[in-house]
Design goal:
This protein is α/β, with parallel strands linked by helices. About 40% of the residues lie in helices and about 15% in strands. The protein has 13 helices and 12 strands. The strands form 2 sheets. The protein has an 8-stranded mixed β-sheet with strand order 5-6-8-7-9-12-10-11, sandwiched between helices. The chain has a 4-stranded antiparallel β-sheet with strand order 2-3-1-4. It starts with a helix and ends with a helix. The N terminus is likely disordered.
Length: about 425
Amino acid sequence: MAVLKLFSIFCVLFVSFVSAGKHDIYSGYTAHGVKLTTQSHLQLLAELSESLNLDEWQHGAVGQRDALYMVSPENKAKFLEELEKNSVENYLHLEDVATALEEHDAVIARYQQSRSSRMVFENYPRYAEVDAYLERIAAEYPDIVTLVNAGSSFENRAIKYLKISTTNFTDTSKPIYYMDAMIHSREWVTTPVALYSIHRLVEDLREQDRDLLETIDWIIHPIVNPDGYEYTHTNVRLWRRTRSYYPEISETCWGIDANRNFDVSFNTVGVSSNPCSDVYPGHEPFSEVESRIVRDIIQEHLDRMQLYMNIHSHGNWVLYGFGNASLPANVAQIHHVGATMGAEMDAVKLPEAGYYLVGNSALILYATSGSAQDYGQDVGVPFSYTLELPGYGQDFRVPPQYIDHINAETWRGLAATARLARVYYNARNAN
């Protein structure tokens, strides 16, 4: 027992030592919360984000939710000066980002040591673990699960997803529900939700959920951006983009924001022309294999795809199109389904989590162009959403102890959207 305890301590110390070097890039970086009381504060922050290259961790809502920004050491004084000059209340969220990330690595290491056995969706799994899980599920449940290898990433990783159906997608009376995760690679908590959804539909199908399997076909895509995701584990924890390289565009910057790379109002709002920016949309729509794969899944099944859920973290938002503040023709139905989802998750939320805010992404969050959510809506998916999971005040460093609750809470919301969207689907087809 003493030897085992010493080994556990060694593992934690070793992870801390290794990650200390890995996170040195963030040494001296700070994170700041900003309280928003007027719309002018949002405009000021948008301008500062561009001029000072701020990393927005959470977009604020006036009078409801604070904004959160990471600031480089060289821009900190100017950032705080501008906030003070404009009487914008703010506070220090993290004194040193590098130290916070090192501490988070240690938390994960202790968590892993404390659980003798764990499922892949109960932790932050690496790409290889997710791949092995998808392969196993497909092999063990061939009657209802089909594994699809959609292609290779820029760095030659297979991008895989599962099709789950009792009729092998041949029953045209059934709607299709497509969910994906990890298009933004630093949002680690999104992949466990997708994996848990597979688990609940296949390995742990409960009687109250049998209708979800028997009357709906599912496409679940746990890691859209595998290159970026692996890079957050091995090199830069807060990397958001893909890992493609176009030297003719920039010889020093890799990757683009895959969630700005879709061909819908491309490169118009909510983006940057700077190839090094986290919201750089790329030199052309669908320049990235990751966005092309999502596009192809939607297009292949568009005749029956009733709902598309693009899962992100963090902030407790259920968002829908369009990113330019225009509204889809069926916005009342879209809001109905989205609000039902938010209410289901709020019913079991933890006290430290905020309530879900539901609405048009541009009107309650910020303007965007080229997003997966907007693309799905634009090409004809009746219900297309961005889901932002809880952060519990821990930004992208959600402690793994919360994963089980996030999985169960979100499954309630996903199940509710599936059932309600199915009602609309059946009503439309009956006419």
